[in-house]
Amino acid sequence: MRFIDTNVFLRYLTGDDKEKAANALALLKRLEMNREKATTNLLVIFETIFTLEKFYKVDREKVRNFLQPILELRGLKFRGADTVIDALDIHTSKNIPFADAFNAAYMRANDLKEIYSYDEDFDRIEDIDRIEPPFSSSE
After folding, report:
1. How far apart are CA 82 and CA 111, in angstroms?
2. What pLDDT was estimated at residue 67?
3. pLDDT given at position 79
4. Pair 76, 70: CB distance under 8 Å
5. Phi–psi pair at 3, nearest 5 degrees
6. What is the Cα–Cα distance from 127 to 11, expressed in whole angstroms?
7. Which long-range contacts (CB under 8 A, 24 or more apart) does 98-102 make?
8. CA-CA 20 to 30 A from 138: which of 46, 55, 98, 119?
9. What span, in angstroms and rounded, lies between the C-alpha atoms of 17 and 131?
10. pLDDT in tens, the chain (139 residues)
11. Cα 46 to Cα 32: distance, rounded to the nearest angstrom
12. pTM (2 decimals)?
């Protein structure tokens, strides 16, 4: 098994280098047919999303539509792929930053209902209750 870095996904998704995009596509097809197995990690996915949105100006829905099929490839073994897919849905539907969406998806996956946070983005997520840490002058 081999590890896939961010730039392989980016070359495929952006097509900005035709030869590398074609080679990346060939790899993804081998993964889909389960003729090869590979893995990646959460940091690669975060970096891919960030780069697509910030540098390539790809909107959130397209990012989700690009990445979800990749995360579901039969030969790609990525622990937490379901949580990332849920986070992409939250990121798109609630229009909140991906990091917050991932935290919400992580909470769902771990049956957590409350979060200590000052970030009001969490107020938009129905099954999560945001709690601001209480202030105590005696502590």
Report:
1. 14
2. 94
3. 87
4. yes
5. -100, 140
6. 36
7. 98/46, 98/49, 98/50, 98/53, 99/46, 102/42, 102/46
8. 119
9. 46
10. 999 999 999 999 999 999 999 999 999 999 999 999 999 999 999 999 999 999 999 999 999 999 999 999 999 998 889 999 999 999 999 999 999 999 999 999 999 999 999 999 999 999 999 999 986 665 5
11. 22
12. 0.85
Beta strands in 25-109 (DSSP E): 38-39, 76-77
Q: Which of the 8 DSSP states describes residue 131?
A: E
Beta bridge partners of 3: 39
Structure tokens belonging to residue 88? 């992409």
129 Cβ contact list (under 8 Å, min separation 6): 113, 114, 115
pLDDT at 137: 62
| Residue found by looking up tokens 């070359």 in the block | 11
d(CA 35, CA 73): 11
**What long-range pairs does 100-104 form, CB within 8 A, spacing at least 24?**
102/42, 102/46, 104/128
Please give the pLDDT value at position 139.
Answer: 54
- Residue ranges of the domains in the chain? 1-58, 80-139
What token pair was written down for 37? 């197995």
